[in-house]
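Late entry, evening session. Most of the bench is empty. Finally got around to the prediction I had been postponing all week. Sequence below, unchanged from the version circulated by S.P.
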Amino acid sequence: MSSVTKDEILQAAQALFLQKGLESVGMRDISQVLGISVGNLTYHFNKKETLIEEVVTRMFARYQRFPAACTLQTLDEWLGLLENLVVENALYFRDFALFARLSEKVREIQLYVCKDNDRFWAETFSLLIDAKLVQPEGFRGHHQRVWRTLHFMKNHWGQRQAAEKNLGEPPSSYRIEAWALLFPLLTEEGQAVYLNKIRRRKRGRT
């Protein structure tokens, strides 16, 4: 193959990055997989960082701003979507911290997502407090610390799953771990909803 499209390059690069990690893949590795010269590759992407930016930008193009959850069932569905998102974008979440060091553009994308995460959780907690499903804060900033911990967990869940895979262990569930942090914040009514309508339903499916 003497020439390829940008889309073919991006697909090959993403597959290699996922297989070997960002730091272990160079432009020559990508060109060899595609059967083209490094010169042909750099015609489309002048350096590795530019290629990485484009890979992440394509992932980010599918990003959706979720409306706040007004029920615990809706929140559970959203946590499930997040878990699937981590699996579908394993490359991004496995090398999350490294992406920011390699590209300023990617860092800006990550900051945008962090701010949108704060927006979602702030609105969600407000609605769930009004519905008497979540307790008011025990101290100022308590809820924010919890949801930022959840966001940190999500961003690095890919690394945990990769480690579990290497150890031959079954993949853990972000959704279940998230509820372990959220459950103590629920009111008695909220805990009853979780135990009877969310947790019990999941057990019934297994």
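Two things to note before I forget:
The radius of gyration is 20 Å.
Residues 104-130 form the longest helix (27 residues).
Will write this up properly tomorrow.
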